[in-house]
Design goal:
Number of strands: 6
Number of domains: 3
CATH topology of the largest domain: Rossmann fold
Strand content: 5-15%
Distance between the termini: 48 Å
Shape: globular
Radius of gyration: 20 Å
CATH architecture of the largest domain: 3-Layer(aba) Sandwich
Number of helices: 7
CATH superfamily of the largest domain: HUPs
Length: about 250
């Protein structure tokens, strides 16, 4: 009997990076071939009852630049990134069923919509082997020193409890010659699914998205300029590149 090939998809959402990505690293270890998929939900640009949309043109440009960078990094590791448009649950369900996918990995995100999407997809694909990572946060959910019903109501008591009873999650080692993440490319049959058309032309300036820009910014803020040394004096500033790390954006 010919052994069945293990084939995996990493579902990228808010984790557009290769470095320190638990779920992606586990998928690479668990499958023979894998590929990354990002689904751009067209509903993000629909106007709500207040005349606003979830995604503005600058945020869209930021995400697109991050996807370009992620695709480049995945290709350098031997895999690729496929960007599609549509309902994420419907698109992922179609991809899994059409391509005999055995494993699907994703990074946990606490947002309501993100958790509901995972719940719906797991209900639609009960036989799939799921891999969940928790590298989006400084503290892993299951390492908190209290249950959610005991969560302090304000920030300072929460910080004190974390500092006293818990340790921040250690990052995965970066992909280097000594500890490589190896990915074997998985070719996908997209069928009638719609590839995403990159279309944003909003200027980003220094706010380019992607892992490369984020790593460069961290290096500049902490080591090149040592701006972290004056953070408490500048953190409430409304403008200025050196007022904070800008890490929440990148």
């Amino acid at each position: 009997m010919i052994p069945i090939e293990t084939r995996g998809i990493h579902w990228f959402r808010h984790d557009l990076r290769v470095t320190d990505n638990q779920a992606l690293a586990k998928l690479a270890q668990s499958t023979q071939r894998c590929i990354g998929v990002y689904v751009f939900d067209a509903r993000w640009e629909d106007l709500n009852q207040w005349g606003c949309c979830h995604l503005g043109r600058h945020r869209k440009a930021f995400i697109e630049s991050a996807l370009f960078d992620l695709q480049k990094r995945l290709r350098a590791l031997g895999s690729d990134l496929i960007v599609l448009a549509g309902d994420p649950v419907e698109v992922m369900t179609c991809l899994v069923n059409t391509n005999a996918i055995s494993h699907l990995s994703y990074e946990f995100h606490a947002g309501w919509n993100e958790r509901q999407a995972v719940k719906q997809l797991q209900a639609a694909l009960p036989a799939l082997h799921w891999i969940k990572g928790q590298s989006n946060y400084l503290y892993a959910y299951d390492h908190l020193p209290f249950t959610l019903d005991k969560l302090p109501s304000t920030f300072t008591p929460t910080r004190h409890a974390l500092e006293k009873y818990a340790k921040p999650r250690l990052p995965l080692e970066a992909a280097t010659e000594n500890t490589p993440i190896t990915l074997a490319l998985l070719a996908l049959n997209l069928g009638k699914l719609t590839p995403y058309c990159f279309s944003s032309n909003a200027p980003l300036g220094a706010y380019s998205g992607g892992e490369s820009a984020a790593l460069a910014r961290i290096d500049d803020y902490f080591f090149v300029t040592d701006a972290i040394a004056t953070y408490k004096e500048t953190r409430n500033g409304l403008d200025g590149w050196g007022f904070s790390s800008r890490a929440s954006a990148v």
